[in-house]
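We give its fold:
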Amino acid sequence: MPTAETPARRSQAERSSATREALLDATIASLVEDGYANVTTAGVAERAGLSRGAHLHHFQTRQALVAAAIERLARRRSAEQLAAADALPTGRERVAAGLDFIWSNYASPLYQAALDLWTDARTDDELRAALVSVERELDRQTLELARRLFPDQAGRTDFERLVEMAAATARGLALLDTLHPGDDRNRKQWEFCRARLVALFEDNGDGG
């Protein structure tokens, strides 16, 4: 029977799961800090404190490892974002706050890391195939989050198109961070765009 001095040994399944989680966390950190082009399976294993071949039992290729890391991150962030959405102010400030919430998801190092992946996927068939299902899941999560962010507008027949416009605007402006990291230009442009988006979301006329 285990005591305080002799903790219970983990099962093989528990050790395998812990190794997988460590690899995925290290992959995400590598993507953010180094960019996809510089991510290697050996480097990820080293960052995770594992042997160089530790990934082979779980992921045969770099592409599979990266896709799994992004998928795990998406699931984790979805739960966090839904909870955070419920804490946003209600009333007249809700729409602007909700749009800023969407913007914050793109004006971040994580989005810059995702851009690396999507760019490389254009010419990497294996990576592209691995990311297709992840992209679909992200689209589903974005719409679910939007319904939580904008409950008063969620019943509009053009709601999905409004959300797509807001997300596309935020994504486009966030691209400026790629060449001008730390520049305030995109944030200033976002303030202008957000005001127009608020007007569209609050328009009583149904654009459907």
About this structure: The chain has a mean pLDDT of 84. The chain has one domain: 12-202. The radius of gyration is 20 Å. Residues 12-202 form a domain with the Tetracycline Repressor; domain 2 fold (CATH 1.10.357.10).
